[in-house]
UniProtKB/TrEMBL annotation:
The lineage of its organism: Bacteria, Bacillati, Bacillota, Clostridia, Lachnospirales. SUPFAM superfamilies: Tricorn protease domain 2. This is Six-bladed beta-propeller, TolB-like.
Amino acid sequence: MEKISQKEFHSIKRLSKNYIGLTAEKTINVVSCNTGKEVFVSDKLSNMSQSIYNQETKKLLVYNISGYAYLYQLPDGKRLLPKIYLKQSDIWSEQIIWEGDFCWYPSFRKGIYRLNTRTGEVELVVKIKGENVTHIVQDKNNILVFTSPKTKNIYKQREKVIRYSYRIEKDGELKYQYRKQEEDYCKICFIIEDVNKKKVIVATSSKKRVEGDSLLYCSDGHLLNIPVNNRWKQGEWWYNRELQISEQDNRMIYVDEHGYLCITELYAENIIKRNRLDKYVYDILYIPTKGVLILTDDGVYEMREA
């Protein structure tokens, strides 16, 4: 394991084939995947959270925990709009759907917001009465919206997940298509992206009644079950961090509860590599054919898979 930077970053993600985004306390630093050199640093925002990049328009949106954001044009790094207020805090970048000039993202109690990246205008475009919006996923030209019934008792188990479908129109409007009560699973834990930018839904199965989590991902118009090895039974403690999946390479990379960085086969128990880190890990990023980048409290490290 080799130390490649003294700087402290709190999260890392693959923005595109060309860029990696690193989140510091107040900035987003963009690094070239080809050269490893820093190509852009955002303006400062306190409690910087995440970033998302649109490959088609080459625009980068960075935002903080409170929901304030800046929009940039890469690779020159020109800021396109004044500071934007997204009207929603703690947004997961995996939950932002970006098509053309519009971004959609969920608000648990309110519905779905839409950001116009040309004007900076933010609107609440979908309201679902009596239901909380838990997750949204893009499937081709559709947005699948997962909700759960509102309840005054926060300890009451929500046994059903309700799925809506909206078609994305050219003008950014969402056209309602259908509502369906899901029978295959009862709880979505979180959504991540694999290293090839596929959305992966980690959910608890209600049919199989397994302990722990099942994997589903959105592909070709429907949700597919992926067999899950016993390591998923460790539950939700990953919570969208310290976990990387590459379905194409049959790899799952994570930091276990004992502080070991593990590379395993996705569909089996076989451990390919296991290293003791002895450091506090903020986040990791797996890059196929290269290895794993590890963000720690004393810098950035690289571990080769081979």
